[in-house]
Amino acid sequence: MAIHQLKPTPEQYSYVFGGAKPLLSVKPGDIVEVSTEDCYGGRVDSPDDLPSEVVPFSELNPVSGPIEVEGAEVGDILAVHFVSIVPARPYAISSTFPHFGALTPTHETSMLANPLEERVWFYDIDLEAWTATFRARNSDYELSLPLDPMHGTVGVAPASGEVRLVVTPSTHGGNMDTPEVRAGTTLYLPVNVPGAMLSLGDGHARQGEGEVCGTGLESAMNSVIAVDVVKGGALSWPRLEDDEFIMSTGSVRPLEDAYRISQTDLIGWTSELTGLDTLDAYQLVSQLGLAPAANVCDPNYTMLAKLPKWSLKSAEAYGGVHRRLRAAAEDYSVR
Amino acid sequence: MAIHQLKPTPEQYSYVFGGAKPLLSVKPGDIVEVSTEDCYGGRVDSPDDLPSEVVPFSELNPVSGPIEVEGAEVGDILAVHFVSIVPARPYAISSTFPHFGALTPTHETSMLANPLEERVWFYDIDLEAWTATFRARNSDYELSLPLDPMHGTVGVAPASGEVRLVVTPSTHGGNMDTPEVRAGTTLYLPVNVPGAMLSLGDGHARQGEGEVCGTGLESAMNSVIAVDVVKGGALSWPRLEDDEFIMSTGSVRPLEDAYRISQTDLIGWTSELTGLDTLDAYQLVSQLGLAPAANVCDPNYTMLAKLPKWSLKSAEAYGGVHRRLRAAAEDYSVR
Amino acid sequence: MAIHQLKPTPEQYSYVFGGAKPLLSVKPGDIVEVSTEDCYGGRVDSPDDLPSEVVPFSELNPVSGPIEVEGAEVGDILAVHFVSIVPARPYAISSTFPHFGALTPTHETSMLANPLEERVWFYDIDLEAWTATFRARNSDYELSLPLDPMHGTVGVAPASGEVRLVVTPSTHGGNMDTPEVRAGTTLYLPVNVPGAMLSLGDGHARQGEGEVCGTGLESAMNSVIAVDVVKGGALSWPRLEDDEFIMSTGSVRPLEDAYRISQTDLIGWTSELTGLDTLDAYQLVSQLGLAPAANVCDPNYTMLAKLPKWSLKSAEAYGGVHRRLRAAAEDYSVR
Amino acid sequence: MAIHQLKPTPEQYSYVFGGAKPLLSVKPGDIVEVSTEDCYGGRVDSPDDLPSEVVPFSELNPVSGPIEVEGAEVGDILAVHFVSIVPARPYAISSTFPHFGALTPTHETSMLANPLEERVWFYDIDLEAWTATFRARNSDYELSLPLDPMHGTVGVAPASGEVRLVVTPSTHGGNMDTPEVRAGTTLYLPVNVPGAMLSLGDGHARQGEGEVCGTGLESAMNSVIAVDVVKGGALSWPRLEDDEFIMSTGSVRPLEDAYRISQTDLIGWTSELTGLDTLDAYQLVSQLGLAPAANVCDPNYTMLAKLPKWSLKSAEAYGGVHRRLRAAAEDYSVR
């Protein structure tokens, strides 16, 4: 197990998935210490900096990568375990953004009505207390929120030679914006090109389900990931696993179709793991499953479907890769 | 505080919200012990009874009521606190149903492809152990699931003289099918006609989020509710409160519009309770909110938006009616 | 063939489908001369009258009826042929309306952004020239538009005892807002209660497809209809027929589901009329069908699916009832 | 005005928009005679060849191009006028396809129900009679349909370095599948990269609105196009113009959002051309506009919004480029 660093220089950041040369090459089982910039490219310095004025559209949501994983072949699964995700600055930023977010006219839900006001919030990050402090802009309401750091954008090169903007989640992962991509979670992504070509960014110090205003507590991050490759087993959509749940995702519009994809995928996965036939697995997921929104603001919406692992009895996904990566993460942490 | 019983006879069950004479009249603060039939009208007696064959469409999902609440006037809020919900039979039933559920062509998502197979599952209910036992139909997989009893259908007479089928959730409540309507929760419904005219049914011994196959663990219930009236404060959509969360609902299609309604409503509610302006409340809900699916199978889909009550500081919804009903429920329970 | 008049007094107008006593009783084959009020209840008298201020919500979109058709039994089809539709006033009115229309936040597509400005346009109606004159409010642009009068709202009592607001189109017809309901068209509606209980209103001197701003050229109308009953043949959704096309409708959200319903229904109808199996009918409709939007603003959206009648060869829908009603209409007109 | 030929060899066909080197370079005002392959890559030779078996997924829907247009700069508009589109083989092919089409479970509208049967239809093309003959597969129904040849897929390199599969329509054009792209129409596309990089394919001998089964009368084509560049005037979405209508498009899901985009765009265009303010233009489009579905089967759905040009009075789009290209097309045709 080697430990690598990836600290991109400003000009090394990437704004698409696919088509790029790797910044780093690692082996299955390796660990990468990676720094990521915030979704504003670090250009919002105060609550008076309106993102739409200080950040060129083409420089939104930079990602760090790609990272090539040697031996990952088309049809394999890339397992990315999040060892730790730690805010890199003493503040995080959130904002509305013209024509972005679930509750304002957007480019996709196009209307003649005016978009919402653009407003910026700065949160103080206290790593000791593990909190972020919300301060209202228009009153003196203040509130300390627990940190729950995550990466909104994690993905690989798409299939069929496509190159996709970082803001669009799809089968290759991307900007799924689910709070489940936190330390302790393993994300499974399809390998569509040799080496998989993993990139990540868009750290949030925390985020509500649905990311309704369009942003979380946007934060540069110092993160550590462990990567592995599961041979074969081609995924249709990204999946996740933590100690308690297996989780499927769907990223598409309308939201019910994102729900349908995530549920269909989870039912198939459950069927494979338990030997239940499709309808019996449908029944089990119907009664035990959780279905939180991830994002309802990006070009594709993302839903999650979660099943508690105790319901799988002794079955383990992908030969226990999550368990092994979890153990490797602990070894790394206690070095 | 009076205690009433409502045990409808078969011919007293109702299949619509609105337009019906009350079966019972109670006062604000009263408690009602109510029995409800399962969604199959009690006609499915074994896994070999296909619901589409043994239950006439017009007798699906019977509700108990209406209950008239004296003094409830148009523009008031009816508070319904669930004191207890206890399965009334030693089994619960789930099934697929032709042209119903999220993962099959339906009457609304109409297709030429054939619908899924209809299949019935019987679960053994063990009240002592507080479990329901899942038994696969096509293998020997068996699993004991914790009970989490709820009512899928709770509503009042709609506004403007409308009469709506029990299966359709909307502004009047109805078939929202959210697992949050469990013992310990207070449901707030708009009062659209004098006396509110509350009905409830569709008990589930438990249900996953989204009710993806179209049914939960359908169960006749012996339930106890406490009702109260909040004067004024006209609701646009049903809201809920338990000890930890305030929750808004939206029931419409597509699912992102149900999400939008629930979020908009929760933001407005948060703004009222905290004094935050709309955008500041939008920000807080964006970072702290939860957004689980309730149902993605009924004629309208239902999303929930949840905010932890600690973020409201000392503010209490509706003058603390939830807290008072919770206390009354405890008094009732320890009689 | 009897000729009836229905000229409701202001207090006789109806605001729901279902649950009302008939204003008139007619026999199959009869003709009814019916007057309808505009969607504003005749309360908007000048471009300075904002509808949201002068029309109570509960008095929007009055309909004339119900008309009971003797002998119409549950499971039959009511055929309503439009003999003539003539604007009753020298002007028609259009407007935006807060929280209504496709390009503004609405009650269903709920947002925090402000709704569009409310604005009213008066059109001069010239029956001689058969034109309506558009006058811009904010410039001197003027344009003479051809009249194409239609009824936005035509429906019957819903099934299962439901009572629905006039603004919501569904399986019972209602506010479908398709320009195809013009003179020369026969509308087929399901009979859900004895006598069918037909009501109509919401005349438009003309309307674009989709009714994107939420209103057409709203106009009181003097209309003549001929009604007939097709025994049996229970409809799932309203259908239309004119001299050139058979047409199916679907009214639901999202819009693709309205499309799916209308297409599925048209394919089934085509299959019945031609003997093609379902897939062959799917193929024919795929290559010859038209698919215009009707409304994308009402509580349910409506799509139409149209197939040219020449493709049906000699087949006639419902035993030629459209042709017979067309002939009766000509007899009436030349009296 | 130069006349070019583009007859790609099999290995020259392209399956994406963006990222490719041009096969041909032309100047504004030039004409290109271009041959295109059918969407099956010419691999379906008889009704017994199931597309899912004989065509690799990665070789569906080949396009001819890219064609570089010299002098086209980012922010310009590429005008593509269709001079003629003529079926190149004596037959056209249509089919259902597993998990594709509006009335079957698909990858996006994912379900557990089985997809529809795959079936292939061969149509005889008679260029003299200008007809295609439909033959039912499961009965002896035969019908002669008028040809109305069109290109389903026409687009340019996307913005921001994206590379998109040919099957996905979006802001760069692509697989919009509207029957309006016929001879006599000018298509306006945004120029996102120097030279625009135009590709086209997916000819249909005719197609219904919505392309409900997922395919038209798929046909290799011999087409002639004339290209021009409008300096400046950056488009958000593709637009079209023929002798009667200006037309806007929107390609996204759900279908109402495609409708919203197309309507918003048409209103803006109308406002520019007439000097009407936004709300007055909204009003005019509401009353005169047409709104047919283009496709309801591709990864993004496409709606069209059409306004008759007589309503624009003397205004001409883009300085009359359509009129000039139309004239050039006539010159070419009478050579």
From TrEMBL, chains A, B, C, D:
InterPro entries: FmdA_AmdA. It comes from Sinomonas humi. This is Acetamidase. The lineage of its organism: Bacteria, Bacillati, Actinomycetota, Actinomycetes, Micrococcales. One of its GO terms (molecular function) is hydrolase activity, acting on carbon-nitrogen (but not peptide) bonds, in linear amides.
